[in-house]
Design a protein that fits this description.
alpha+beta, 9-stranded mixed sheet, 5-stranded mixed sheet, 26 strands, 34% helix
Length: 642
């Protein structure tokens, strides 16, 4: 076949296939145009998932009649002040969006330039352009897209259900709204519901948090840590969630470059590296990061949808993200997310009894369909609305049979001849033995309950420390907390020149399979830097002569076996220093206070004070919370006292 030029309408439809793959892509392009026009309010309507109608209305600078005619021509744009494609300072710059959308739909543009006395309208029907006509519009631009992909019916077959397409539109609009908190946004499907975001006020960083709270939820807003850093002309700002606030997918990770939402592998990898010390591998943090960089140092022209970017100095960007996120998490200290305490309170509340089939079960069910609390009274809402919530007015629950007898026995004074109270409360240990270490009290030390983690009151089931603060109580997992403390001290010791060793009085012999023993002996020099000195002792046997002093009386045999398994997963491609987190975490786990070990009150308080002074102590090395805080007001509400 001879070479020929394709007709313009076909060229536009091919471009539409690259730029407008679904209704959400069309909305994204139109909203970006509105933002580039300086709009302070953008209203979007998407009916039938955007397939039958899309309208985008803004109050931006608008266009004249001549500019309307140029706007629907291919590669016509007002966003490139020069011909330098590396100097991109706007969201849109290709000049393909409007002609591509017009090639596969019925497109109507109505606009009124700022300061003009009239508006103009222009239509494009499946690529056929009309002439500008006078129209009525107060200010800005209104773009109407009807019957998207009507000119290419095959494309409609690949679209999902209307609800799915609408969700894609909402997701794209939310990302743009995060980057521009000073702009008001609305989204609807033509009905009453939808997204409504008012313009945030105040400092840009605080305004972003307000907008992120409206989109990502109050939990994120209450448990977010600010990030603000700059290095060699590259600035990073935003908000990141505490490590204990994590999700099973990366859906809530939002990354922006010069105000443009991106999905960049380099930035995603940097975020994962920054949180690798705090989260399990299958969990992801919640965050929103905004990177501002010289347009000459980043290429945004990598992908037609502009979702990917390429940095000139990738090491600088990665180092800035990893360093600033780790610094921000260290500044958070021992904080753990409030969602941990709320989840605990939720677990304590009565659950609906859906299995009551007989009359006896029905008698035990209170108003609202809830099983009565073990307490004599529950704070339940009145009425037959079936809300079953914990709030509203206070009403008594049915009194179980035998309550008076049990109450009298519980409140009766102790009888002579009975064992001490501590012996009758299973698992409860207020104090047990002399302390192993005691912090030196300061002359002007404040009351213990004024500290963030309060004053230790008891040890429950020789595993959990219960402390009292002025605002409530704190429950600490002693093993998880001490594991993090040992881990942080090991890392600090490595940075200071090496981990101090403790020689074993009698060397420990551990029998392993031959491959595991060989892996350990091959890395013996690196393990010695971490404070663990091992030697070969025959075939498949390892002798341990020294262990890190920080580990104390640890289980050496299980430590060596776990390290052997860890090394088999790491392989031989990386040194132990490059995978320091995994090795140190394994060693710290074996050197920490174990569950089931009795602690004295002084030891508990010393552990709490060390947690307050140690960064990242709000979660253990495996990403689990080390403590739960329950506010007194929530506890009183739980018992119906509020």
């Amino acid at each position: 076949m001879p070479i020929r030029m394709l007709p313009e309408t076909l060229v536009n439809r091919i471009a539409a296939g690259e730029v407008v793959e679904r209704p959400a892509a069309a909305v994204k392009e139109l909203v970006e145009n509105a933002l580039d026009a300086g709009a302070t309010r953008i209203d979007v309507v998407a009916r039938d998932g955007g397939k039958s109608l899309i309208t985008v209305t803004d109050d931006g600078c608008g266009m004249t009649a001549d500019e309307l005619a140029l706007a629907v021509e291919r590669h016509a744009t007002s966003k490139l002040p020069s011909d330098d494609l590396l100097d991109i300072r706007s969201l849109g710059f290709r000049g393909e969006a409007l002609p591509s959308i017009g090639a596969v739909s019925h497109l109507t543009l109505t606009s009124r330039a700022r300061g003009a006395d009239s508006a103009w309208s222009l239509t494009v029907d499946a690529g056929a352009k009309g002439a500008p006509q006078p129209a009525a519009l107060a200010q800005g631009t209104r773009i109407e897209v009807r019957d998207l992909f009507a000119a290419v019916p095959a494309r409609l077959k690949f679209l999902k259900a209307a609800r799915t397409e609408y969700d894609h539109i909402a997701d794209g609009l939310e990302r743009l709204a995060m980057a521009h908190p000073g702009v008001a946004f609305t989204l609807s499907d033509g009905g009453r519901g939808g997204l409504r975001l008012s313009a945030a006020q105040g400092d840009l960083l605080d305004a972003r948090l307000t907008r992120l709270g409206a989109l990502m939820g109050r939990d994120f807003q209450e448990n977010a840590v600010p990030v603000r850093a700059e290095r060699e002309g590259v600035a990073l700002a935003g908000w990141i969630g505490l490590p204990t606030l994590h999700r099973p997918t990366a859906k809530h990770q939002h990354l922006f470059v010069n105000g443009r939402p991106v999905r960049d592998k380099l930035m995603v990898g940097a975020v994962r590296a920054a949180y690798a010390d705090f989260l399990p591998r299958d969990r992801h943090p919640m965050l929103a990061l905004f990177l501002d960089i010289d347009p000459q140092e980043v290429d945004v022209n990598v992908h037609p949808a502009k979702a990917e970017v390429r940095f000139r100095d990738q090491g600088l960007v990665r180092g800035l993200i990893v360093g600033s996120l780790k610094h921000a998490l260290a500044e958070a200290g021992h904080r753990a997310s409030t969602t941990v305490g709320l989840a605990t309170l939720g677990a304590l509340r009565p659950e609906p009894d859906g299995d009551s089939a007989d009359g006896a079960a029905a008698d035990r069910t209170g108003a609202g369909g809830f099983t009565p609390s073990p307490l004599p009274y529950g704070n339940r809402s009145h009425g037959g609305g079936g809300s079953g919530g914990w709030g509203g007015s206070y009403s008594p629950a049915p009194v179980p049979r035998g309550l008076a007898e049990r109450s009298a026995a519980f409140q009766a004074p102790l009888q002579t001849g009975l064992p001490p109270l501590q012996g009758r409360l299973s698992g409860f240990t207020p104090a047990a033995r002399p302390p192993e270490y005691r912090p030196a009290p300061a002359a002007d030390s404040a009351p213990l309950d004024s500290h963030p983690l309060g004053a230790a009151r008891a040890q429950v089931h020789t595993t959990y420390i219960v402390a009292q603060t002025r605002e409530g109580i704190v429950i600490v997992d002693q093993h998880a907390a001490h594991e993090r403390l040992v881990y942080e001290r090991m890392k600090a010791a490595l940075l200071e020149g090496g981990v101090k060793r403790q020689a074993l009085l009698i060397p420990e012999l551990i029998e392993l399979d031959e491959p595991s023993a060989n892996r350990l002996l091959t890395r013996s020099a690196e393990l010695a830097e971490l404070g663990l000195v091992i030697e070969g002792f025959g075939q498949g046997c390892v002798m341990v002569r020294e262990v890190p002093a920080l580990l104390g009386q640890s289980d050496v045999k299980n430590l060596i076996r776990d390290l052997a398994e860890e090394l088999s997963e790491l392989g031989d491609t990386l040194s132990l220093k490059e995978r320091l987190e995994e090795v140190c975490a394994t060693m710290a786990c074996h050197g920490s206070v174990r569950a089931g070990r009795t602690l004295s009150i002084d030891e508990m308080n010393a552990l709490l004070r060390q947690m307050e002074a140690t960064p990242h102590s709000g979660q253990c090395n495996h990403g689990r919370p080390t403590y739960v805080e329950l506010k007194l007001t929530d506890i009183e509400r739980l018992f119906g006292r509020r």
